[in-house]
Amino acid sequence: MPKCRSRSLLCERRGSIARVVSPDVLLDAWDQSVDPTERLARFNLAMAAELGRFRDSLPGWARDYLRTAEQYWRGDDTRRNDLAAARQASWDYLDAKHGSALIVDDEDRLIRALLCLLYPDAEEDPGMTAAFFADMINGLDR
Q: Which of the two ends of the chain, N or C, has the fewest CB atoms closer than 10 A to its terminal CB?
């Protein structure tokens, strides 16, 4: 079982150091002092940065959707409809693979983490999103 320092991204595993995602670090981006739109963008960009470490492990189409999400949350010329299309295609892929309810392998975990970035509306509970995202990334075989 890894031993992690609180709020740290470093974790000791079998004598080596591996980077893990802490929900608390992601939630640091959920700054109540900024307007809700900026707060949501910062939160999603923090998750995108973590997922970006695994960009090469994503299928090509999912890399494109990660780029779409990054552009949207940075305020580049990406529309909400682009996120909706990426979200639907990601769910369709998981459904066709073996049903969207199952998380079987690393690809499923990465697509699920990507899906966290594809919802343009504010989350009721960002802590739940951060914890789920962290579970998906931290559960990868690396």
A: N
Map tokens 């090509």 to a residue: 60
Contact 41/75 with Cβ under 8 angstroms? yes
Quote the DSSP letter at residue 96. H
Q: Can you list the positions of beta strands (E) in the chain?
A: 3-4, 10-13, 16-19
Tens digit of pLDDT per residue, the chain (142 long)? Answer: 333 333 333 343 433 345 677 787 788 778 777 888 888 899 999 999 999 999 999 999 999 999 999 999 999 877 989 999 999 999 999 999 988 788 999 999 999 999 999 998 866 688 899 999 999 999 988 6
φ, ψ of residue 140 in degrees (nearest 5): -70, 145
Q: Count Cα neighbours of 107 within 13 Å in the Cβ-side half-sphere.
A: 12
Rounded CA-CA distance 73/40 in Å is: 8
What predicted TM-score, i.e. pTM, was given to this entire model? 0.82
Long-range contacts of range 119-122, CB-CB < 8 Å, 24 or more positions apart? 119/83, 119/87, 120/72, 120/80, 120/83, 120/84, 122/36, 122/39, 122/40
